[in-house]
Amino acid sequence: MSADLHLHTTASDGQINPEETVKIAYKRGLKTISITDHDTIAGVNKAFEASRLYGINLISGIEINTDYKAAEVHVLGYFINQEDPDLLALINKIKVSRIERAKKMLIKINDLTGKNLKFKELNKMVRGKVITRAHLARFLVKNNIVIDEQLAFSNYIGTSAPAYVKRDYITTPDAIDVIKQAGGIPVLAHPGRTEYINFDLSDLLNFNFQGIEVYYPHHTQKQTKKFLRIALENDLYVTAGSDNHGPGKGYKNMIGEVRLPRRFLNRLLQVHRP
Ligand code: AMP
Ligand code: MN
Ligand code: MN
Ligand code: MN
Fold first, then answer.
1. Does ligand 1 lie within 6 Å of residue 132's CB atom?
2. Element (H, E) at 6
3. Ramachandran angles phi, psi of 251, nearest 5°
4. Mutate to test the pocket of ligand 1, among 99, 133, 148, 166 (most ligand atoms within 8 A of CB)
5. Beta strands 32-35 and 57-68, pairing class
6. Rounded CA separation 201/217 (Å)
7. Distance in angstroms (rounded) separating the CA atoms of residues 134 and 237
8. pTM of whole model > 0.70?
9. Ligand 2 centroid – CA 192 distance (Å)
């Protein structure tokens, strides 16, 4: 009984594909995992067959970046019904708005450089996935606009660079509602990360979160203790996740580096048998 409930794959910005993620989880002795790609469930759908092959309990998951008081709050959703129409509509809305945003950034880049980079070419590279600035950076390198991706961010698409366009966020309560509607459990992701320091955690708990990601690689012992106390006091589920994006591109392979204590996993699985 060992679980890592926060994993990215090539369906979003992870380095390894969903099938390989399941295989590594198996090799590392995990029994339960959740694939939680940004704004997509494509990876979960791809991993189900492998999860049966390796006898891994795969919980369908997602991570949605939301907007709250000028900060970014990440909402994890577990046990979501992958066919829920409202959830699929939200995912599609995010995908489409990211396409529009990438087009706007590309126009700015063309204006700045005098080039004529085509969205069609960028889209080919993305191959149906959700377009992020990471793709755009790679595209700029490929087209010799800059020699590396870092330069793409500092000179063009970084938050204070001239071709940056803010993405359309959805609000935290909206994401929570959609996850609940889709039969899922909304969980506050990595509360210890810096994006949350602008406001009090108790503010967030006024939303209908049902769990907190207490165990997380960057959480200090002190933070872990605090979040555990808050979760227990508020009768919320306790979750754990490595937030693996690697191995590769400067990321370590973190699969299974953070594991959920059995009593908390049991609680989660009791109510929601997949
Ligand atoms: P987006 O969600 O489209 O704004 O893109 C965010 C992604 O861009 C992140 O997940 C990173 O992969 C990448 N990214 C953002 N800022 C930087 C940066 N300064 N250097 C390298 N990659 C970055
Ligand atoms: Mn990511
Ligand atoms: Mn996150
Ligand atoms: Mn994540």
1. yes
2. strand 3-7
3. -100, 140
4. 133
5. parallel
6. 19
7. 33
8. yes
9. 16
The residue type at 262: R
**Measured between alpha carbons, how far is 37 from 176 in angstroms, rounded to an integer?**
16
Ligand 3 centre to CA of 74 (Å) is: 5
Q: Is the CB of 134 under 6 A from ligand 1?
A: yes
pLDDT attached to residue 197 = 67
pLDDT averages per 10-residue partition of the chain, 274 residues: 93 94 98 96 96 98 90 93 95 94 98 97 91 94 96 97 92 95 97 75 88 96 94 96 91 95 94 60
- Tally DSSP H helices, then E strands, for the chain: 10, 8
Residue ranges of E strands in 26-148: 32-35, 57-68, 71-78
Does residue 167's CB lie within 6 angstroms of at least one atom of ligand 1? Answer: yes
Residue 252 has phi, psi (to 5 degrees) of -80, 160
